[in-house]
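Notes from hallway chat w/ T.B., transcribed later so I don't forget. T.B. wanted the structure written out for a chain they're using in a teaching module, and asked if we could keep both sequence and structure tokens in one place. Agreed to drop them here.
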Amino acid sequence: MTESDEKHSITAGGVVVNDDSVMDAEIYTKGEKQPNQCRDPFFAVLYYIHVVAIIAVAGVLGIPSLTKNSQLKPDASKDSVEVTGIVVTAVTSAFFTFLCGIGALFLMMRFATLVIQIALILSVVLSLLVAIASFATGNIVGGCLGLFFFLMSACYAWCVWSRIPFAAANLNVGLTAVKANCGLTVVAYGLTFSAIIYSIIWSVAVAGVFTQTTVCDASGNCTGKPNAGIMFMLFLSYFWAQQVCTNTIHVTVAGTVGTWWYAPEEANSCCSQGVKESLQRATTYSFGSICFGSLLVAIIQALRQLVENARNNDDGNAILLCLAECILACIQSIVEYFNKWAFIYVGLYGYSYLEAGKNVMTLFEAKGFSTIITDDLVGNALTMICLGIGLVAGLVGIIPAAGDKTMFAGVPPGSEIFIGFLIGFIVGVVISSITLGVVASSVNTVIVCYAEGPAEFQNNHPELSQEMKEAWQKAYPELANW
């Protein structure tokens, strides 16, 4: 290599990359495991303070308000019947969702390429069906939008079709890592359950706040509502907690898959050392970083919710509110995209939030992965599978609703079937999204690890490495000499 060539090269994890496109890129340094110390601790403390505050509001204001309302409804027999119907339908749908989830994982491991192809075709077909349905019902604007999305989807499918084998290889590796550490799904369900508990507490707190800020007459007509500041804080609290739960799962999966990649002997069982240590780091040393990144998204989500409420209540200029919501949605997408990759580096090495984001983006730029990470073929496939499982669970939910209509005695006659389907669909989507979310995090971590440690992958998992290498060379021949 000449002196001139050396000026145009980047050394990354033992791999020398000659690429003029990275001349202006910041020099990439391979990630290193950070010392065990708390990162971004201010945001972890702030998060705990906010949780304690919500619990206090729920206890001081929420519980008394619920007790007062229950005393005004002495006859709760119909409500109890409806609750029973909801529980029976939800449990039945959850059981079949679990079975469908196992079947989906099996199919993805056996027919990864076919699954991604079908999902891509379905996304195109569905956009066309939306356009046709809109035109058929006289909705010209909706039909034109549907037609536009159909054309965009078709063009996207045509452009990325040749890259499906590489996405399938990533999916197969990600599934293999999750299968070797199936305790990750247990962790995901456990953290999701904690988020559900928090949602209940938050709902009680919101009930208390509304009781204190509204005045109701004997007829049940209420006036007054919390001001925008209080509403913003309530929305922020809810979205922050949900983001923290989701990203804690993401970071835990990233750490476990990284251990499986570099030290497979430590991450090769249900409750492996890799799973335990990754969960421990995510909930202690890296928890502040998780809270930091989650707070950024939660602020945008809370603002979007306020704008949406204002639009629904006609509180302001409709055009400006629509424009504001679109801008906030774009900003949210950008921050979520950044978080998705930054939190992988947090899980792999324990960097702080901003440092992790900077390092992973530098990695992608140095390796020429900018195009690769925008092809969310696996994500699209997982979304379609999630919706498919939701539909199956919805159909299963119809069975108990149709078999015993007294379970929904308080609803209008004839609506039991729809309610059963809706409950089943929601349960199916929520439960399957948890399992498939673990798979998505695993696949994204595989992309980062493959960019950073292909040699280690070859040494520890030679068959999977060969599969990815062949798919890589076919999908991205311009980077084949990487």
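Follow-up for T.B.: The CA atoms of residues 70 and 76 lie 9 Å apart. Might be a good example for the class.
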